[in-house]
Amino acid sequence: MSLIHAIILALVQAFTEFLPVSSTAHLILFPWLLHWQDPGEAFDVALHAGTLLAVILYFFKDWWTLIVCGLGGKYPASAPPAEVMQHKRLFWYMVVGTIPGGILGKLFDKQIEEHLRTPIIIGVSMILVALLMWWADAKAKLTRKIEESNLRDAIGIGTAQAVALWPGVSRSGITIITGLFRGFTREAATRFSFLLSAPLIAGAVASKLPALIKLHKAGGLDLPLSTLAISILVSGVAGYFVIAFFLRYLQTRTLKVFVVYRLVFGIIVLLLAFLQAGAR
Questions:
Q1: Which position among 30, 63, 101, 110 has the lowest Cβ density within 10 Å, counted as fewest Cβ atoms?
Q2: Prior bond to 224 cis, omega within 30?
């Protein structure tokens, strides 16, 4: 794979990881549609490392506050006790919310990778989640702030994050949808979703990194380290600005444009898949 291809896919990852359109679907379908070679697991880890970099940088102050308060400290020093307790609760809600995705990812990641990453499954998933997103965006009562979150929110949104292992669902999409059904505002649901993504992405990168380091030492990596490094940088920088844009966007707008995009994209994928199957 050339450096240009790597940069294009890094940009695709940055946009589709945080917008509710499924990064997995786009990273599978772009090479399929353009007849590019499979970049391999090392490149997948590099892109997720870039995504992790983006979410950590953007929410660094939030995570620092949550971790310090969650582990018994106080930040900022002038924070009243009620605010510290609120941060402490939210930290442990994030811990609880990470558990379902961590368990299911460990149990089923390989099976999903081998059997479910097909255009037809992705196309159907894109359409079904689009309809669910439309329902949540139009019908749910969107009044709660992230400060009002509770344990049931963490369990519900965390379980939804585990469902996102299914290709085409979209981690951000399904967690935002669940947040909307829980009554959060669009911005609050998205902020909860992005905060919750950091531990899971970090776990996914950490779980695959030792094997890739071993592979690199054995001379088995298909991609040069410079290409992987540039991919991480591009994905991280672009992802940072996508997060900032999306949070501002949802302060005044709905998710309708993403509903339409998912429907159109899903239908096109299904049509192309059936046409290719018929041509064989």
A1: 110
A2: no
pLDDT given at position 132: 96
State yes or no: pLDDT of 223 exceeds 80: no
Name the amino acid, one letter, at 246: F
Q: Is 74 exposed, middle or buried (0-12, 13-18, 19+ CB in 10 A)?
A: middle
Distance CA 146, CA 61 (A): 16
pTM, 2 dp: 0.91
Q: Domain range spanning residue 108?
A: 3-279
* Number of folded domains that form the chain: 1
Report the length, in residues, of the chain: 280
pLDDT at 239: 96
**Residues 39/28, Cβ–Cβ less than 8 Å:** no
> Which tokens in the block code for residue 259?
């509903």
Q: Which structure tokens are listed for 7?
A: 């940069």
> What is the token pair recorded at 176?
């935002």
Tokens of 10: 């890094």
Nearest-angstrom CA–CA distance, 14 and 236 = 7
Angle in degrees, CA 84, 74, 65, rounded to 5: 75
